[in-house]
Design a protein that fits this description.
Blueprint: H1 3-34, H2 41-59, H3 62-83, H4 93-115, E1 129-132, E2 135-138, H5 139-161, H6 163-173, H7 175-180, H8 185-207, H9 217-220, H10 222-232, H11 237-257, H12 261-276
Antiparallel strand pairs: 1-2
Helix pairs in contact: 1-5, 1-6, 1-8, 1-10, 1-11, 2-3, 2-4, 2-8, 3-8, 5-6, 10-11, 10-12, 11-12
Length: 289
């Protein structure tokens, strides 16, 4: 393997890790606080990508499409949370999985009805390349990596340095005690859910220039997203980032070594880690509700 090919694969893996992190950090937060497997996050991921395509087509601005897509997705997620998801917060995890999977399927059906079945292209908003150790690397991939790092530290800052974030962290450890202190835990649930949806929409928006935007794009990334969450440990933001880095590199380098490894190797890594540490790299024993 040449040095240039290796560097290109590593940068590609890091950019994919950034997308995996943005999509899965919301899943991790939702489960950590609400004990809810929010499969509709994949709908918000696809919706973010489609809104970028639509707004960019109308205005010519990718950045306006990204901002507008996140806002529109927030509104959609808030409506779904208020009308549907809040009804299963106190029920076993299987209820939330089935319900949110149904929401995801209905959303995909609406996407097909509105935008059709034909995949849509989104041009990269940042052209050119950067020279890294003699290898030309697309500048947009570097932007995606930097954005994911900024979001990671922003989420950590929010959770550790703000009153609301502290309440969310406490709720992840023990929601009943937080509620006993007079904090409206349902409002925390809603806030956490729409934050997760915004991050999922952002993941879809920045992934759109890498792939053709299609109705099934959320479904196609589901397996990798769950691997990231499981390997990192449910409810752990740090674990989600570390796991995203591992999965991104395994997929990218595996594809370079032998194409089938891109799909096989992440599952092998997940099984090995779970055999050693069943709760994931940074997972802990979950408090019962």
């Amino acid at each position: 393997m040449s040095t240039q090919l290796l560097i290109s694969a590593i940068i590609l893996g890091l950019s994919m890790s950034g997308i995996y992190f943005l999509l899965t950090v919301g899943l991790s937060l939702c489960y950590g606080l609400m004990r809810m497997i929010s499969l509709d996050q994949f709908l918000y991921y696809a919706l973010g990508a489609y809104m970028v395509y639509t707004i960019k087509t109308l205005t010519g601005s990718y950045w306006l499409g990204m901002g507008g897509g996140i806002i529109i997705t927030l509104i959609v997620a808030f409506i779904i949370e208020r009308l549907i998801n809040k009804r299963v917060y106190s029920k076993p995890v299987m209820f939330s999985m089935i319900l949110t999977f149904g929401v995801n399927l209905m959303g995909v059906g609406l996407i097909k009805y509105i935008w059709g079945l034909t995949p849509k292209p989104v041009a990269s908003p940042i052209g050119g390349s950067l020279n890294i150790f003699g290898t030309g690397v697309p500048a947009y991939r570097i932007f995606v990596i930097c954005l994911a790092v900024v979001v990671y530290f922003a989420v950590q800052l929010f959770l550790n340095k703000t009153i609301v974030g502290t309440a969310i962290r406490a709720g992840i450890d023990d929601a009943e005690k937080v509620e006993a202190l007079g904090i409206n835990i349902k409002r925390l649930f809603t806030l956490t859910f729409i934050i997760a949806a915004a991050l999922s929409a952002l993941a879809g928006a920045i992934h759109a220039p890498f792939v053709m935007v299609s109705p099934e794009m959320g479904m196609s990334i589901t397996a990798f997203a769950f691997m990231v969450v499981i390997i990192g440990g449910l409810g752990s933001i740090k674990g989600t980032m570390v796991s995203a880095l591992i999965v991104g590199q395994v997929v990218s380098l595996g594809a370079v070594i032998w194409a089938p490894l891109a799909e096989m190797a992440p599952f092998l890594v997940m099984m090995i880690i779970l055999l050693i540490k069943p709760t994931g790299l940074y997972g802990s024993k979950l408090a019962s509700r």
